[in-house]
Fold this protein.
Amino acid sequence: MAGNSFGKLFTLTTYGESHGTALGGVIDGCPAGIDVDIEAIQQELDRRRPGQSSIVTQRKEPDTVKFHSGIFEGKTTGTSIGFVIENTNQKSHDYSHIRDSYRPSHADYTYDKKYGIRDYRGGGRSSARETACRVVAGALAKQMLKGIEISAYVSGVGTMKLNKPHTALDLTQIESNIVRCPDQAMAKDMEAYIKEVRSKGDTVGGIVSCVIKNVPIGLGEPVFDKLHAELGKAMLSINAVKGFEYGSGFEGSTMYGSDHNDAFNNDGTTKTNFSGGIQGGISNGMDIYFNVAFKPVATLIQKYETIDKEGNTVEMQGKGRHDPCVVPRAVPIVEAMAALVLADYFLLNKLSKL
Amino acid sequence: MAGNSFGKLFTLTTYGESHGTALGGVIDGCPAGIDVDIEAIQQELDRRRPGQSSIVTQRKEPDTVKFHSGIFEGKTTGTSIGFVIENTNQKSHDYSHIRDSYRPSHADYTYDKKYGIRDYRGGGRSSARETACRVVAGALAKQMLKGIEISAYVSGVGTMKLNKPHTALDLTQIESNIVRCPDQAMAKDMEAYIKEVRSKGDTVGGIVSCVIKNVPIGLGEPVFDKLHAELGKAMLSINAVKGFEYGSGFEGSTMYGSDHNDAFNNDGTTKTNFSGGIQGGISNGMDIYFNVAFKPVATLIQKYETIDKEGNTVEMQGKGRHDPCVVPRAVPIVEAMAALVLADYFLLNKLSKL
Amino acid sequence: MAGNSFGKLFTLTTYGESHGTALGGVIDGCPAGIDVDIEAIQQELDRRRPGQSSIVTQRKEPDTVKFHSGIFEGKTTGTSIGFVIENTNQKSHDYSHIRDSYRPSHADYTYDKKYGIRDYRGGGRSSARETACRVVAGALAKQMLKGIEISAYVSGVGTMKLNKPHTALDLTQIESNIVRCPDQAMAKDMEAYIKEVRSKGDTVGGIVSCVIKNVPIGLGEPVFDKLHAELGKAMLSINAVKGFEYGSGFEGSTMYGSDHNDAFNNDGTTKTNFSGGIQGGISNGMDIYFNVAFKPVATLIQKYETIDKEGNTVEMQGKGRHDPCVVPRAVPIVEAMAALVLADYFLLNKLSKL
Amino acid sequence: MAGNSFGKLFTLTTYGESHGTALGGVIDGCPAGIDVDIEAIQQELDRRRPGQSSIVTQRKEPDTVKFHSGIFEGKTTGTSIGFVIENTNQKSHDYSHIRDSYRPSHADYTYDKKYGIRDYRGGGRSSARETACRVVAGALAKQMLKGIEISAYVSGVGTMKLNKPHTALDLTQIESNIVRCPDQAMAKDMEAYIKEVRSKGDTVGGIVSCVIKNVPIGLGEPVFDKLHAELGKAMLSINAVKGFEYGSGFEGSTMYGSDHNDAFNNDGTTKTNFSGGIQGGISNGMDIYFNVAFKPVATLIQKYETIDKEGNTVEMQGKGRHDPCVVPRAVPIVEAMAALVLADYFLLNKLSKL
C-alpha cells in the first residue's frame, strides 16, 4: 500500500536507504520447486553495480546478496524468500550540506513535505540504490520464466539515437561493450559522448529499449491490468524514467488503421507487429518490445544555487561519484522489472481457466 | 486481481460487456460526507457518449447511470457505491461473422486463447464501452477532489500536432469544439482531417494531453507506486493507448542535466517544470502534465482478409458505426483515470503522518 | 480496503443498503468455462429469504438475482460477473423514530460516530440484508468447487444443544425441517422454543455447525493466511457472530497432546480428526468442521429506553418483522462464506507449484 | 497473497524458517514521525523468547532484532522498515528422523503434499518461531498506538480455568509470574500443573484472554472487514489456535436478546458490555475483550508410531526442548497480533471522512 511492494502473486517487498545499514526484501509467491542459481542472481547484480566501468559512478559497493530463507537444497520451497544486501560503503560522511537544503529535481523537497522527516544521507529511500533489490527479485523471476528471453539495451544517449528496429539488431552483442548498445559503432560514439558530458560535470538522458521473446500467449488481464499497463507502471517506477511506449508507441498515434493493423498468418502469428506482442492487454505470442525514456541525472558536479528548508537561497556544489548517464546501468533494472511483471502475469494466467 | 479493479483506497471495480444487459461497478473507499452532484456525473458520461457529434461513432446509446447505494440525502455515506448503466442498444445482431473469426489488432484472438471462451458480441469485455464505468467513478472522484483542476485535450490527430506547451493554451476552450482541442484553428483542421479519414473507411491515431492544476504537495508513494507510475498505468489501461510520457517525457531523454534541472524559487515552486509536477514520485505542487498516445482504431469500414479459429483464411467486412479517431471521446476518459489516481493518492497521503 | 470485498483471487465486492434501491455485487476472478446453473443460485437465495417459514421474519422480499455480465452461453467467461438484487419491499416508512436515536447493540451509534452520517433506513449497510449478495457468490463458488460438499446446520438454539459429532448425524436431513437441524426430534423442540421466544417479543442466540467433505489436500497458505484463519474471519464477518472454533476447538484447549494428536493411517488419512481437517493451516483431506456462535438478534418487539444523538434518554418500541433467532436463515450464509473461502484457496493452491 | 503478509495499511511481511540463517520482515505503511523505542521492542521479544523460564522450552535463542531501515534519528521516516533476527542456534542437527516421516498433528504432511518439497529442519516455515517477527512488528504498532492498552494473559491451562471477568482482575499482575496469569493463586496451580504434564513428556492446551482499553470509537470496517473478524483471523493465524470468541462469545449464543442487549448511558457508553466493545464490526469505545483457545503442543517427549513418505509405519521418538504448554509464551504474540490489527484499523479509520 505504501509503495514498497510490487506484484500481485509474485510479490517483491523491499526496504533500505542509500546509506543505511542494509537493503533487503522479501519475495513472496514464488512457486515451490524452482531451481535457484544464486550465482546467476549475483551476476545480474554485478551488471547494475557501481564502479563496473569507466562511464558509470566510481562508487565502490560490492552489492553482495545473501538469502535468508525460502530456498532449500537448491530449490524454492514455496515460502517467502528473504534477502539482504549490506551497505558496505557507509563512510561517516558530512551531510550537513544537504540536511537542510533541497537539491533541484531530486526528491528532497517532496519527501520533506510529505513525511516531515527525511533520511537525507545520499537520498535515503529515494536513491536509485533501492533498485538493487529489484534486480535480485527480477533475476529469480527470470529463472522461473525459463525459456522467455528478456533483452534490454541502450538505444539512445542524449540526441544520439539507434534508429533500428530490434529485429535488425544482434542482441547477443549487448554485453560486449560498456554502454550496452548492441550496435558496436554506435556504442563507441555513445561512450565517447558520455565521457565528454562527464568531463563537463554535466549529465545526459537516454533511452533503454527492451525485447521479450517466447512469451506464452495469454499473459495479461482485462481492463485495468492490461499487460502493457503493468509493464508501463513497472518501468515508470524506476528512478528518472519519464516515458514509456510499446509496439508502435507514440509513432503509432500518427498512423492510419489500414497501415497499423497486424494481419494474421494462418498459424495465428501476425505479418507485422505494431501491436508489440500485446492485443487487448494480453500477449499474443509475438515479440513484446518497448522503449523507456530516462531523464538526465539531477546531480551535476557543478556549483548551483538552491533553497534551504526556510526558503533561503543557498549555494551548493555537487560532488562525489555520480553517473553521468544512467542508461548503461539501467539496462539490468529494466530487464528485472520486465521479469517481475511477466512472472506475476504468468502466475495470474494459471487462474484464467480451471 | 483479475483486472477489473482499480485503486488501492478509492477503488473502482467494474463489470460489463459491450452487448450484455448492463455495465456497472462498485466504488469502494469513498469517504463519507462528500456532496454528490449526480447531474455533473451524467454530464461527464455525456462527454464520452457515442453519437455526441459528427466525428464520433453514430451508435445511439444514452448511457444513463443509476446509483443503487452509498449515497444518502445527497452525500456519500462511506459505504460502497453501486451503479449501473443499462445497455439499451442491444439489437439482435447477427454475430456469425465474428463468432468464429479473429479481427486483426483486436482482442478476439488473445481472449479466445486465454479463456477458451469469449463473448464475441461487439468485442465483449474488451470493448471500450467499459470505459463508461471509469467515467462515472472518475466524475465522483473529481467531486471529492474539489479545487484540483484536471483538463485533458486533444493535442494530436495523426501527424497533425499542436506543438504548444499547455501554458500557452486557453484550456477553457477545450469544449468549444467537437475535437476537444483548445486551439480553434487547429481544431478546425483536425475535424476536417478526421472526416476525410472516415470517408475512406479508415481510422487514424492521436494524442491526448492532460494538465492537472492545484495538486497538493505530497501525493505519491516511494519506490513502486510513484505518482507518475500509477498515472502511466491508468492511461495505458485505456483501450488503444500505446504510450505515456510526463513532464519533459521522451524529449527529456535528449537533454542535459544542466538544462533539465528545475531550479527552486524561494517559495518552493520551481522556475521551470521539466519535472512535470512530480519529483521522486511525489507531487511538488507544480502543474502535472502528460501525453497519452492512442493508436488508430482497428475497425475499418473496409474489406480485409483474416483467419478463423481453425486458421483458415476468411474474408471480412468492417461495418457499423465506429469512431474514425478515438481521441475526442478519449478526453473525458483520460480525465476520469487521472481523477481516480489522484483520489487514491490523496487518501494514501493522509496516512503519511499521524 | 473499505471492507466491502472478500477474497484474494475469487473476489466478491458488494454494495447495498437494507432499504435502498438495490443490492448487488461483482464477482471477479472466477475462472472461465464454469457451467453456471442460475436456478441453483436462486435456490440458495431462497434458503436465506425472509418469509420462508413460520419461525423467521415475515418480511416479504422475493430476492431475485439478475446477472449482468461475465456469463455467456451458460458458462463463465473469465471476466467480472455483475449481479443485482432489487429491493422490492421499500415502503415509504416513517423512520423518524430511529433517525436520531441509537438502538442498543445495533450499529447505529458506531456508524454515526465513524462516518458522521448514516443511512438509518432499516440499518442501512449494517443490515444483514447484505448477506444476500454473499449467498449469490457462494452459490457460484459451490458450482466451481464441484465435488466438495459443504453442509451447515443448526446445532444449538439458546441453551438447547445438539451434542453429537457430525459423524453421528444424517446430513441429508438438514433441509427436512424449518430449523435446519438434522436431528428431527431436536429440530421439533427447537422450533417450539423459537416460537415461544418470539411470542414474548424476545430473541435468542444459537450455533451453526458446518462440515466440509472431499476437500483436496493442500488448501491453505502459511503463516497469516492459514485456511482456518480465513474461515474464521469469513464466519466472524457474518452479522451477529460472536465466536468460531474448528476441529477440537475450545474443548481442545483442555486436552493433553497425547490424546489430541491425530495418528496417521498408512494412506495418510488420520485415525482421529481433532485437527478438523487442517494441519499447519493447510487442508489434509479429512473433513473440515467448525462451529459458529450467533448472539441473539438485537431487535426486540418490546418497549425500551435508549439515547438520541444528543445523549437524551428516549423511549423506543421495537416493531416490525424480525427474526426471533437467526440461525435457521444463517445456515446458507455460513455455507456461502465457506464456499467463498474454499474457492479462493482452491485457486491460490494452483500457484503453489509450477 | 501467499500468506506471509498481514495488514492492509500497516503491513507486515515476514520470512524465515526455524533453522535457517535468519528470520526477518518488512513493516510497510508505518506513518512518519513515530518515536521508536528499540529497547521496548526487544523487551517484547524477550517475553516470547525460549528459555525465559522453567515452564517453557529450554532452547537457547537470544532473538535479537536488528533494524535495517525506515528509522532515522529515533523516528520512523514513513518508508519501509526492514528487520532481521538471526538464528544463532543452528546446530548441525541430524534431521534424518523427520526428513522422510510425518509427525502427527504437525504440518509435515500438508506442506509436503502442497509444495512437493519442505524444509524439514525443525518444522521449517511452519514453526512457531516465525511469530518472533510478529512480536517485533506488534511492538512497533503498540508504540504508534500510544494510549491504547493491550493486555493479554493466561486464563486457562488444560481444564484449569480462571473463571473471572477481566474487570475482576488486576492486570498489572500479569508479568509477576511465569505463567502470565494475573491471579497469583491460580498462577501457582497452573505452574505446578504444567510441570507435572512436562514430567510425563506430555503437553496440554490452554486459553489466552486479551483486553484492550482506550480504543477510539470508529475502528472497524463494514461487512467483510469487521474489527472482530480481523482480530479473529489474526488470532487464528497463530500456531496451535483452535478457536476465538469475543464479548459474550459462545456463551452469548445461549442468551436472550433482552438480557444480551447493552443499554446506553447518556454519554454513549453502555451499562453492560456483552458486545465486547464492538458493534456492527466497529469499536464503540468500550473495552474490547476476547478469548483464544490453544491446542496442546503436538511434539511429545514420547515414543510413537507414524508413517513415512511411502506410507510405511515407522517409530519415532520426540526429543529436544519443547514447550509443555504454549500459552505463557503465546501471551506477547496475542498482544502483538492485536496491536497489528488495531494499527491497521486505526489508519483505515483516518479514511472514513475527509
Summary: Chain D touches chain A through 47 residues (CB under 8 Å). The domain at 5-349 of chain D is CATH 3.60.150.10 (Chorismate synthase, AroC fold). DSSP finds nine helices and 17 strands in chain D.
